[in-house]
Specification:
By secondary structure, the protein is an alpha/beta fold. The protein has two domains: about 5-20 and about 270-369, Aspartate Aminotransferase, domain 1 (Alpha-Beta Complex), CATH 3.90.1150; about 20-265, 3-Layer(aba) Sandwich (Aspartate Aminotransferase, domain 2), CATH 3.40.640.10. The chain contains 13 helices and 14 strands. The protein has helices at about 20-30, 40-55, 70-80, 95-105, 125-130, 155-165, 185, 210-220, 230-240, 250-265, 270-290, 315-325, 355-369, and strands at about 10, 60-65, 85-90, 110-115, 135-140, 145, 150, 165-170, 190, 205-210, 305-310, 330, 330-335, 340-345. It has a seven-stranded mixed beta sheet with strand order 2-10-9-8-5-3-4, sandwiched between helices. α11 (about 270-290) packs parallel to α13 (about 355-369). The longest helix has 20 residues, at about 270-290. The radius of gyration is 20 Å and the shape is globular. The model has no long low-confidence stretch (mean pLDDT about 95).
Length: about 375
């Protein structure tokens, strides 16, 4: 497929990245500054302040890691897990599976609690597994499972973690900026996300916040953090205090991210959450008229990522290719066991607009015809 034939710019309605506002692109296009420039340090401080608002936290250790959402996942397991620690991971989709993979690579004894894809985790099963676990250090789950479109309620799992003196780690890659995360109210100890989904910024940064309790656990390690690049102690020395050089941060992305955070504040979090809900509802009403049913269980569906069963007779790749080549619209296919069985349509950040959904519905109707 020749890139020259594709309409430009694309309308990104897949699982990410999403569209980027012109203001953010303009901010990123300005001449870069150095990684020790005073203006950049002002931007880093502003990013931290604004991120705390979006995360719903007062955590001092709140920043944006260099790397995508997987950098956030990797850094959390690298700092919080030592060989032999027991880590309980709730798996209800592709990215829960990835948590299991990464925790195992850092030497964790992984206990997994599975739920059928398309449904949330069962807190009673997590409680039962936690009660049996030895040296339980961490409980982890995905808030917004990108592979299935399921929203996981976090409060019951946070309570289980506290009862068992375990840290609670949450993946908010597809939720931060699109629906409430509420770190402090719920009692989440570490949470990471990504800039390219609901935050309205290009890929390349992983917002992260860590509680004092989790930082104390990390500081009490008996072994050194294996990852030098994502060692939180070293990163804290760059983001605060003396701004000690650690690595060459992506300065242009950070300037762009500051602009996207300003736009989020201007819109207001409640208004932003309502926009995501309204646009997702419009999409679901439209696809229902074409015979498409949601994959995620009723009551637990995400407003940011809509997973849909393919309509009868539709050929997954053919329809998605036609949407892209003829209309410049991207939607996603299924991951893992859902490959060829579902479409994943993102209504995230700048992409979450009535205009985009109306265009997609018209294009889908033509492609399916």
């Amino acid at each position: 497929m020749s890139a020259q034939r594709l309409p430009d710019p694309r309308i990104l309605l897949g699982p990410g990245p999403s569209c980027v506002p012109p203001r953010v692109l303009e901010a990123m296009a300005r001449a870069p500054v150095g990684y020790l420039d005073p203006e950049l340090f002002e931007a880093l401080e502003e990013i931290q302040v604004r991120l705390r608002t979006v995360f719903g936290t007062a955590n001092p250790f709140t920043l944006a890691l260099t790397g995508t959402g997987m950098a956030g996942m990797e850094s959390c397991f690298a700092n919080l897990v030592e060989p032999g620690d027991t880590v309980l991971i709730g798996v209800h989709g592709f990215f829960g599976e990835r948590m299991v993979e990464i925790a195992g690579r850092y030497g964790a004894q992984v206990v997994r609690v599975d739920a059928p894809w398309g449904t949330p985790l069962n807190p009673a099963q997590i409680e039962e597994a936690a009660a049996r676990a030895d040296r339980l250090r961490l409980i982890a789950c995905v808030h917004a499972e990108t592979s299935t479109g399921v929203r996981q309620p976090l409060e019951p799992i946070a309570e289980i973690a506290r009862r068992h003196n375990a840290l609670f780690l949450v993946d908010a890659v597809t939720s931060l900026g699109g629906l409430p995360v509420e770190i402090d109210r719920i009692g989440i100890d570490a949470c990471y996300s990504a800039t390219q989904k609901c935050m309205g910024c290009p890929p390349g940064l992983a917002p992260l916040t860590v509680s004092e309790r989790a930082l104390e656990r990390a500081a009490a390690r008996t072994s050194r953090v294996v990852s030098w690049y994502y060692d939180w102690k070293l990163l804290a020395n760059y983001w605060g205090g003396d701004h000690m050089y650690h690595h060459t941060v992506p300065v242009s992305l950070l300037i762009a991210f500051r602009e996207s955070l300003r736009m989020i504040q201007e819109e207001g979090l409640e208004a932003r959450y309502a926009r995501h809900q309204n646009v997702s509802r419009l999409l679901m009403e439209g696809v229902a008229q074409m015979g498409m049913q949601p994959f995620a269980q009723e009551g637990y569906r995400l407003p940011t990522l809509n997973a849909l069963h393919l309509p009868a007779g539709a050929e997954d790749v053919t329809v998605r290719r036609r949407l892209l080549t003829e209309y410049g619209i991207e939607i996603g296919g299924g991951l893992g066991a859902l490959k060829g069985k579902v479409w994943r349509i993102g209504t995230m950040g700048e992409s979450a607009s009535i205009r985009n959904v109306s265009l997609l519905l018209a294009a889908l109707k033509a492609a399916l015809a």
